[in-house]
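Tutorial, part two.
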Amino acid sequence: MEEQKKRKRRANGETSIYFGKDGRWHARVPMGYKDNGEPYRRHITRPTETALKDEVKRLEKQRDQGTAQQPGKLWTVEKWLCHWVENIAKDVVSENTYDGYEVAVRVHLVPGIGKHRLDRLEPEHLESLYRRMQKNGSKPATAHQAHRTARTALGEAVRRGYAAKNAAALAKPPRVEGDEDEIEPYSVEEVQSLLIAVNKRRNSARWMLALALGLRQGETLGLRWADVDLDNEYLKLRRNRLRPKYAHGCSDASPCGRKAGYCPKREQVRRETKNTKSRAGRRAVPLPGPLVVMLRAHQEAQAVERVRAGSLWAPSDYVFTKPLGGPLSPNTDYHDWKKLLGDAGVRDARLHDARHTAATVLMLLGVPDRVIDQIMGWEPGTSSRMRARYLHVPDAMLKDVARKIAEAIWGPSEKSPTDKDQDNGA
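Running the prediction step on this input gives:
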């Protein structure tokens, strides 16, 4: 028995098992290599040899499957999320995506589940967080954003062997009620009212690109004259305008005391535009004749502004600029849209709702689905879902369908007395 308890010499890469002077069984399990290339062994101890061997088998299985905890990486959820968002996600996703991740991590995930150990996080911890978020006033969509962020971050942790399972992939996210039925595209009369108000404004063609062609805000503001072919009546979409982000330009010794965006010496820390990453987003869009006329007039007006501004003009090739040149800010553009609605006496709606209007008009004109998908920039794999979301059937069309069904089943209906009076010239 004493002989069996002695340490047995094992070959490199094999687990060593021995009985210690403390009266317990010990094992050193090879688990791989550290960051510096040195071999890493996991030391475990149990009161009985049977219990020890069971644990050894479990660890060896995790090691062989690539799901074992790595050396020196006993991550908490907070430590991992902060590392992931700054050192992993930041360099591989767009600025807007990163901003969404960063807010979800900083505002919701770290305060809510950050103290848990990463390898011991359970789906119930996340589901409890989602309930608390909604109880404290967060919308389901906000909780859903936190869920998507956690699922992506934890998926990377599993892939690297820092956790055995993705708790967010197992958790049930909050249900997000769709608001598509609440969106009512603008009628032809409302679009015409907007057109009258638009013609009195600077950058008038900007709004008609949204209402007539459904261009996204970032696509329109990122448009350059090199992308517009007025002779052949089309434009190419290949980049998006990003929301500006600023850092303080004042010194620590003499701070301005304001937020970075209002610092008198603020510095732009984000690029102005990014290239459209999807093939569907990079597309050619036909220009209706009246829009070509509007863009030609806009080009001439911009040339006059450039001459008047002289040395104050900020050189750029943007189609839509500030009065002294340079790209328009998405925030300024949003407030201009709201003012346009008020001036036109048209009901309030999101700028993105103009995109629903354009898609619906294309449908009513009988434009083939494939062409609608290209104009709107929808991916082939998601186009049917996007059409279902964006194409709204007007009440008049539904009534016309109901009339045709009635005539097919019950036959042509008799004219009402009012109709008869009209036919008789009353």
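The two ends are 118 Å apart (CA to CA). In part three we will examine how such features are distributed along the chain.
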